[in-house]
Amino acid sequence: MKKFFLHLTFIIITLISVSAKAQNKINVTELQCEMLNNPEGIDVVQPRLSWQIKADVNDVKQTAYQIIVASTLENLNANKADLWDSGKITSDQSSNVTYKGKKLEDRKDAFWKVIVWTNKGEIQSANSAHFSMGILNYANWKSTRWIGYEKASIGDSITQYSRLSARYFRKEINLKKQIKSAKVYIMGMGLYELYINGNKIGDQVLAPVPTDYTKNVKYNVFDVTSQLKEGKNMLGTILGNGRFFTMRQDFKPYKIKTFGYPKMALQLFVEYTDGSKEVIRTDDTWKVTTNGPILSNNEYDGEEYDARKEMKNWNTTNFDDKKWFLAEYVQEPGGFYEAQMTPNMKIMGEVKPISIKQTSRGTYILDMGQNMVGWLQLKVKGKSGDQIKLKFAESLQADGSLYIENLRDARTTDVYTLKGEGEETWEPTFVFHGFRFVEVTGFTTKPTIDNFVGKVVYDDIKTTGTFESSNPIMNQIFKNAYWGIRGNYKGMPIDCPQRNERQPWLGDRTTGAYGESFLFDNQTLYAKWLDDIKNAQTADGGIPDVAPAFWRYYGDNVTWPGTYITVADMLYQQFGDKKVVEKHYPSMKKWIVYMEQNYLVKDLMTKDKYGDWCVPPESLELIHSKDSARTTNGELIASAFYYHLLQKMKKFATIDGNNTDDIKYYDSLSERIKTAFNAKFFNAAKNNYGNNTVTANLLPLAFGMVPENLQSKVFDNIVHEVEVTYKGHISTGVIGTQFLMRTLSEYGRPDLSYKLASNDTYPSWGYMAKNGATTIWELWNGNTADPKMNSQNHVMLLGDLLIWYYENMAGIKSNPETPGFKQIIMKPDFETGLTYVNASYESIYGTINSDWKKDKKALQWKITIPANTTALVYLPTNSITNVSLNSNKIDKSSSNYKVENNTIVLTLSSGSYNISVKR
Questions:
Q1: Any idea what DSSP says for residue 41?
Q2: Which domains does the chain have, with CATH numbers?
Q3: What are residue 235's phi and psi, to 5 degrees?
Q4: Cα atoms found within 13 Å of the Cα of residue 525, Cβ hemisphere only
Q5: pLDDT of 897-919, one tens digit each?
Q6: Where is the signal peptide (predicted)?
Q7: How far is the C-alpha of 677 from the C-alpha of 689, rounded, in Å?
């Protein structure tokens, strides 16, 4: 059963307390459930618990902990650990501690706290954290029936341009006793909104997160005790289409997976104060109508809303539903029911327009000033029947009208029909748009920017990273990346938010997920995505290019499906999550073997599908380069990348229990591939690989395939191509760019990395910014290329740029030997061209800060290291006499530093430090 898997559950605890034994105070904040966002209804039988220690003194180390878990808050407050008392455990572990108490039962609550011993004394959590178990067994859903309305209504269209009205459901219930507690468990496919007594439950939007519904279906849980009352109550839901009733329902069925009409299953569990319990379930006594105001909702085409059809009080007990139908029992989706462990989407911010201008056609163009993802809230006055149309796009044509060719056949239009009752405020419910500009039609008076507010929508996850430097171009690129990444978090990482695609392509995140993890707390998002990939795997081991497999793209290659492995590695490296590796290891190995058995010929991987996708073309009008000198051999890419993945699998085999047979298999296969690769692709006369593209040389160098005595010569060829052939510009596509910046820095040319990062001429990230981009383009020439493929909000071309920003410019990197930032490597490339960098990252242990400035005389560096961690701090001098720490000289006899390659390496414990280095 699914419940026995060790799912990712992560509760961050920060402690409020003052150590009675410590002379200095350890200041902390309140307890919070960080990764569980909504801690109601988890389906993990052994959750992993974590906490943070926040201190205003240096050198704080945990020496032991004790976790107390109780079934009630009263028991916890009385230190009655009726679920689990870990006892005092001598350990510095403060993350991913596995619960080992009594069996956690269906729908039961758990309250917990932690006592921590440090080298400064003992601290106790002043507050408690809470989580509750979900429905752990499929059988407990069996009495709950799926209901729906499996028909098209008047005005619906089951075609390429699908139209389907929203389904409204209601059920009046009578609760005859005083209520102690109540929780709702809901599966609303494809999207739902839930109401009780007229009030919307939760602040989530576009819920639940999308999956392949034939594989798994997510349920959400809400504590609704305060929403219910003794006596009559009304449950109401609205179902939208989402990914369930697919946007192109009757179009390319061989490619686009469809699931049917919207449907739902719901359970309301009520416990009364006398101890009795009651369960209300979806059944055929619920009422349904499709004759509501949401006439159509389609992710590609928009939402149509007729306010004249609003049903006042439809979701309260004061409503006549005689004209509504009885709901139908319908077939379940087919996937296993799972608690949703990832946060839903939410309105995460607002954008106010910067201008509105009238066109020659009498319409208006609204400029948000920022390419964003979400929707518009509209305020308007008019007569009943007046229609406002909002058409969304990312850019404008020369005449000031919308540029929509790059949207393909997505109509991206919301339509609002007024009811004519004073000022009306509306925003859509079941769609989102990627846009900066909006064409507004239908206003009978001149609109102003005050008639509109942009709502920014993405997964409810925390921003964890900040970055600022002395270079304005680099700062704008960072901002563009931030807006692009968050806009494409939609319960899964999608490629773009605007055209008729919006798919979770694996290849877009192979290394990108790693860079994103510095900006956003994306751990649960990507843990969920790994489940999507696993569920999409074929019985014989194949992995698609898109997962969930909403598009049936099972073409077999290395670089796209290999994301399954690289994202797992990211979760281990950045968050210390080895359980995700253990969980997915068998499926990852199955794919490795599948590719070897089907496509390895003479020890080389022969299958490649996309090459070095989106290399900068020689002409600004081209999508793809036609110059063979820019094109890297696909077999070279596939073989090198497969070798790279084998090294990660070898590491995983150790994590998964030191599987010696698997390690031998990976070693043997790697050695054979490396030998064959060098024999075929290395040109000894020129010391390069393949046709000498940057990517052809970069991949074997970055992956450790180049013999040590030849590495500098191969690197010289990379430098020559960058500096001479391409005149200091980027020439790599999606694959090469994943390793470009770090490899240039690693081999002694951080200045060249900096040049690529700070360029503002084609092709470069700065060129995008200079030409008005406020997100990252799909193409290096996204302002001039053929409109068939020039999304202006993609993230795939970021490659390893953000990793380089943090690890090489800011000097914030997790030591691979101590994953999850238990030890931090702080080693900025000071000699690049920047004069200052100020960056921060909220790790699982707390905030890491790196703020450095330099001039001709000195380097000043302020750093913060979280409690219960250490850092290796690299300083650009070989003399300890040039260094002062918190205004004090360092004793030459100190064991806290060493000299390594003409660099001072300090070992520092937690705390805040001011470092000065004379130059």
A1: S
A2: 1-135 (2.60.40.10), 138-342 (2.60.120.260), 349-459 (2.60.120.260), 465-810 (1.50.10.10), 814-918 (2.60.420.10)
A3: -100, 130
A4: 26
A5: 999 999 999 999 999 999 999 98
A6: 1-22
A7: 9
